[in-house]
From TrEMBL:
This is Transcription antitermination protein NusB. Keywords: RNA-binding, Transcription, Transcription antitermination, Transcription regulation. One of its GO terms (cellular component) is cytosol. Belongs to the NusB family. GO terms for molecular function: RNA binding. Residues 18-154 form the NusB/RsmB/TIM44 domain. PANTHER family: ANTITERMINATION NUSB DOMAIN-CONTAINING PROTEIN, N UTILIZATION SUBSTANCE PROTEIN B-RELATED. The gene is nusB. Involved in transcription antitermination. Required for transcription of ribosomal RNA (rRNA) genes. Binds specifically to the boxA antiterminator sequence of the ribosomal RNA (rrn) operons. Pfam families: NusB.
């Protein structure tokens, strides 16, 4: 049993970070395969969350905060049109959503959902997704993520 499985336990920072990485991967899988969120979440829970000794580096998610992962994936898929509209307004004209790397699209969608629809402080969401971006990208993408998420946060604050 992992900390995220124990009743009444608080998820650790690491378990929440792993959940965010897994959510980005699941959103990527939804887009690439055409499968719906529930199908992909089921696959993740069956095949990627194996034993507690399984390694995150091997593509498994034994320590992930599964509640958070599922909330993000379901939330993004339910609000994707609204999220994409927000992101499209903030992206440079020469970089429409369709031109973005699909992993980057998933990352931006997940972070935008969390900023707009959860109680997690925006600065924590932005920092976490910056860490995720650095895990996937080695070019200018993390800088772009930071700028876009900062703009999402400012827009969200002005709308509340």
């Amino acid at each position: 049993m992992t900390a995220s499985d124990a009743p009444n336990s608080r998820p650790t920072r690491r378990s929440r970070t792993i959940a965010r990485v897994a959510a980005v991967q699941a959103l990527f899988q939804c887009e690439q395969s055409g499968d719906n969120a529930e199908t992909v979440l089921g696959q993740f829970l069956r095949h990627r969350r194996v034993s507690p000794t399984a390694s995150f580096e091997d593509g498994h998610i034994p320590d992930a905060d599964l509640t958070l992962m599922q909330e993000i994936v379901r939330g993004v898929t339910l609000d994707q049109d609204k999220i994409d509209h927000t992101l499209s307004d903030l992206l440079p004209e020469q970089w429409p959503m369709t031109r973005l790397d699909p992993v980057l699209r998933g990352l931006l969608r997940a972070a935008t959902f969390e900023i707009a629809d959860t109680d997690t402080p925006d600065r924590i969401v932005i920092n976490e997704y910056m860490d995720v971006a650095h895990g996937f990208f080695f070019g200018d993408e993390p800088k772009m993520v930071n700028g876009i998420l900062d703009a999402v946060s400012r827009r969200n604050e002005s709308n509340t």
